[in-house]
Amino acid sequence: MRQKFLIFTALIFLTVVLVGLNAASYVQKEKTPDSEVNPNRSTYNTGATGTRALYDLLAETGRKVSRWQQPPSALLAEGASKPQTFVIVGKTRREFDEKEIEQIMRWVSGGGKLVIIDREPPEELIKTTASWNIKTDTESEPPFFNFDPADQKQMTEKTNAAKPTQPTVYTNRINAVQPSRFASSINFQRFADAGNLTNTYQDSVAPKISADEDYDEDTPPLPKPAPSGYETNVNTTSANKSNEKNSSLAPVAHLANNEKTLLADFPFGSGEIVFLTDPYIISNGGINLVDNAQLAINILDSREGLVAFDEFHQGYGAGENRLLGYFAGTPLVAISLQFAALVGLILFSQSRRFARPLPESDPNRLSKLEYVSAMAELQQRTKAYDLAIENIYTDFRRRTARLVGADNFTTSHVDLARLIAERAQLNHAEIEDLMFKCEDIIRGEPTNKREVLNLTSHLREVEEKLGLKRAKKQIFGK
């Protein structure tokens, strides 16, 4: 006992030492400040590059918004929680794979509204089923580490505010929108030959749109090339009708300054895609400038239904382990691993022998019940039920005869049954029948285990009625 106590004390001391060493050596990681080089556009981020202010604004003004933490395949599922507007902001921390892009575009083709707010979005997400090609122009200077996204003057230096190019639902109540100096521009190119599968474009038909020059919507459209692979799940007839309708449409530019086109929307199947080229406009650091907040509301609130912000690709997927993420970077993880190693070592040591083998202990042959247990086991294995009932019934008759004052050898079972019934106030016929069956089995009448158990139970019940209890001295032979 003393040795086990010392081992237990040593283990506790070792655990305390390990915890102390981990706590002493732990250096808290400084939180990485927001930067335009590596921004965090999540609605959970309250920093300058985050979009928490926009999310809270929409939620507190009664709009239906949610943080979408499921893979894009969930957009195709039917249900009341299916969003009508899906928002992807900035460069995400988890890259889009081809299958996810296909699922998103299939959802848009079915009538959804996709809002892309990024300077360099994936080209597969800014496609249109109209006879136009959408590209981004990123000729502006790239952001550097020394730029502070919370410094509005530094972020918008030498950058003119954007003005509405025409009155639309997205430019309603908009006088000016202030982008950052890093915003990209939208270029529109119209297909020169719809039958040419090499996707050549005629720049002279659709020159770059700016604030001073817009495209001509009255120009007859050219035939559209073969439909994209994203629409293969749509019925052929409905797809042809949709293509005919979209071929007569063109991308609509809503917002531009003297250098860049910042906002446009274009059809895709039965849905639409809205493309804003600067996340700074709706970020926490820039949403309070001029009419930036109003523009964000116009874009996201133009259609009824749920507005879902893509948090799955921002690193907040439903499959992520929140508990491990909460304790990541703390000494608790190392302490838990070391504690698990100690427990494993203890279990390993307990399951192995570190000394010479001990001889097997001999059974105690001095027990006075050993004969009884051995005889009971022998009778059970040989199915000698008549012998078992003889032992039990003989003991019962001897004890009851002594109790009622009768001679065990000369008194018949009929008279003994009458005396027992009078003493225990039981039915005389039942007691006589019980004794008669026992004597028949002793004389060789065939029986079985079930019958012997029933007879033994009845004999014990009669003993209990008579008050014949076995004392410990009788049981253990002391």
Report what the structure shows.
There is one protein chain. With 478 residues, this protein is of the alpha/beta class. The protein folds into two domains: 52-141 and 155-320, Rossmann fold (3-Layer(aba) Sandwich); 370-476, no CATH class. It is built from 14 helices and eleven strands. It has helices spanning 2-25, 52-60, 98-109, 152-155, 236-247, 292-300, 322-327, 331-350, 370-382, 385-404, 413-424, 428-442, 449-466, 472-476; strands at 65-68, 85-89, 113-117, 132-137, 163-164, 185-191, 201-202, 252-256, 261-268, 271-276, 307-310. The strands form two sheets. Strands 1-11-2-3-10-9-8-5 form an eight-stranded mixed β-sheet, with helices on both faces. Helix 3 (98-109) links the parallel strand 2 (85-89) and strand 3. The longest helix is centred in the first third of the chain and has 24 residues, at 2-25. 29% of the residues are buried. Residues 193-245 and 473-478 have low confidence and may be disordered.
Summarize the structure.
By secondary structure, the chain is an alpha/beta fold.
Features:
Rossmann fold, 11 strands, 478 residues, 11% strand, disordered C terminus, 37% helix, alpha/beta
User: How many separate domains?
Assistant: 2
Sequence stretches where pLDDT stays below 50 over 5 or more residues: 193-245, 473-478
Q: Please summarize the sheet with the most strands.
A: 8 strands, mixed
**Which shape, going by the Cα principal axes?**
elongated
* Series of secondary-structure elements, N-terminal to C-terminal: HHEEHEEHEEEHEEEHEHHHHHHHH
Approximately how much helix is present in the residues? 25-40%
Multimerization state: single chain
What Rg is obtained from the alpha carbons, in whole angstroms? 45 Å
Gap between N and C termini: 34 Å
What class would the helix/strand composition place it in? alpha/beta
Strand content: 5-15%
Q: What's the number of helices? A: 14
